[in-house]
Write a structure and sequence with these properties.
The protein has 15 helices and eleven strands. It is an alpha/beta fold. The protein has two domains: about 260 residues, Rossmann fold; about 70 residues, no CATH class. The strands form four sheets. The chain has a five-stranded parallel sheet, with helices on both faces. It has a two-stranded antiparallel ribbon with strand order 3-4. Strands 6-9 form a two-stranded antiparallel ribbon. The longest helix has 16 residues. The two termini are about 45 Å apart. About 35% of the residues are buried.
């Protein structure tokens, strides 16, 4: 990739192979004029993100994602990720199941130090509001008597969800939002999502009020309420609007089960992941199990068998990892007197039924 400071890549794809801390690559990204927002940044909230279990899990998963930059397809993926970073556009990642689409989000967050990945799984019943915020109307009604003025800001009954948290982020770096299996969604969701991402803001309907935002007992024009966001409070603007400080790095996955509207595709950077090569599979095994097991000749034979079989039909990469784990624990280390009967390893590998 050349010198880190002179190379245009903010995201290299290989930084974490030789380092145990995020890179400073995001400092290269300059916000396009049409994506600029005037917000007050809070550096303390940013530093708190790179600590704790959630960040450790993101970093672990990101470090295990493998790029082979000698491979033309992988080099292309890195370039497209950087294009999305510079243009601040969402990424649509397409490919077969189990090929590593969602793991790409963790690799980006880990290398650039963007905090724990915000994970939003999609079902056929998911709506845009499911990703924006949750309103605890039952608690609100229970704690509010019609004959009394409210003693608490209405905002405490609202909690930002995954997309809302990404918008409420006030650090100088964006959050990574993983919208998993978008192709399962209702037909309206991609366009609804596109509208929110294009505008860079959304409205909390229940905080809309004709004379100003709902607030504490100080009056209709009192300070705007704050809503919950990852254990903190995020400010909401007048009439319930929440504008993003940094456009989040949004990565959406698709198993290619459906086509998306052209206006949606036009505003996305589309990446299609291909099946990993034998070289890449060997490196994946090495990162998960260490160099000793990956250099084992019998493990090498398993990788070769998997590569041949995967060229004929789709087999998820985690099958190979599962098979090697079983081989290592039961057969290679011989921890037990009795061993599984039959071709268990090859069954797990997907070679035989």
């Amino acid at each position: 990739m050349g010198d880190m400071n002179s190379d245009w890549h903010a995201f290299t794809g290989v930084w974490l192979k030789d380092h145990d801390v995020p890179s400073n690559g995001y400092e290269k990204v300059k916000t396009p004029p049409w994506r600029r927002r005037v917000v007050e940044f809070d550096e303390s909230s940013a530093s708190n993100l790179l600590d704790g279990t959630n960040w450790n899990e993101t970093f672990r998963r990101g470090k295990n994602f493998v790029f082979d930059l000698n491979d033309e397809d992988d080099s292309r993926v890195v370039d497209l990720v950087n294009a999305a970073l510079y243009l601040q556009r969402p990424i649509l990642v397409k490919g077969d199941t189990g090929i590593g689409k969602s793991s790409l989000a963790y690799a980006i967050a880990a290398e650039l130090g963007l905090g724990p990945v915000l994970y939003w799984p999609i079902t056929s019943h998911t709506t845009i509001k499911d990703g924006l915020y949750r309103y605890d109307i039952i608690r609100h009604l229970q704690e509010t008597r019609p004959t009394e003025k409210p003693q608490t800001d209405a905002g405490v009954y609202f909690a930002l969800k995954q997309l809302g948290i990404a918008f409420g982020n006030r650090a100088k770096k964006p959050r990574v939002l993983l919208i998993d299996e978008l192709d399962k969604a209702d037909m309206d969701l991609p366009n609804d999502l596109l509208h929110v991402l294009e505008e860079g803001k959304f409205q909390i309907d229940e905080l809309t009020y004709s004379k100003g935002p709902i607030s504490a007992s100080e009056g209709d024009h009192a300070r705007t309420p704050e809503v919950r966001s990852e254990g903190r409070m995020a400010k909401v603007e007048e009439n319930g609007w929440l504008t993003c400080g940094q456009f989040p790095m949004v990565l959406m996955t698709s198993n290619k089960e459906r086509e998306f509207p052209e206006p949606f595709l036009r505003r996305c950077i589309t990446i299609e992941l291909t099946k990993p090569s034998k070289v890449k599979l060997t490196e994946i095994v090495k990162r998960h199990f260490g160099g000793e097991i990956s250099n084992d000749s019998e493990v090498g034979q398993l990788i070769q068998k998997f590569t041949i079989e995967a060229s004929k039909k789709h087999i998820a990469t985690d099958r190979l990892l599962n098979a090697i784990h079983v081989f290592k624990e039961f057969y290679k280390l011989k921890k037990f007197d009795s061993l599984p009967k039959g071709n268990l390893v090859e069954k797990i590998l997907g070679i035989i039924n």
